[in-house]
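ok so for the tutorial part 2 we go from a plain amino acid sequence to predicted structure tokens. step 1 is just haveing the sequence, like this:
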Amino acid sequence: MKFLDEILTGCLENNHRDQKILYERYYGYCLKIVFRYIFRYDKAVDVVNDGFVKVFGKLHSFHYEQTVKLEMILMGWMRTIMVNTAIDRLRKDNFLPEIGMTNEGLWIEDKDQASDQALLYKELILQIRKLPPTYRIVFNLYVIDGYTHQEIATQLKIAVGTSKSNLSKARGLLQSYIKKLETDKVCYM
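step 2 — the prediction. this is what the tokens look like for a chain of 189 residues:
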């Protein structure tokens, strides 16, 4: 098995085998990120593929000093590209809400994650998807991806106050969704 730095070197040299290895290794990770923003499977796959085109196109600008932390640094860099690509797609589609939900069989399980954590993550993401698109995007960017309100405002071309307001409203809606979910569970027991 090739080391990651060798794969990246091959990708920089346009070696298609190394590009395929990188793509297959991080496809699931990138798809999970994009699913938080775009929950139609076909659109999410398109965004991931567009994101990988950007990854390969911008790989020459990716720099790292320690090969020990290379994977962690690469994953953070790729996450930023996938988030930006997803937001670009949503902006292109005028932030229209998507119809339908992701098929349960499409969830990509993380082998390092405990089954109860995977279930909680899945339930949380399903609740986040119920949010209106503008609230969902701000919530994902701030809470999950760690962007500041200033960065969100710049990215989405909105005021910082709007970002804060959307986050507050998203949190309120999520709390009501989760309370309702808990109430429904108690009723069925």
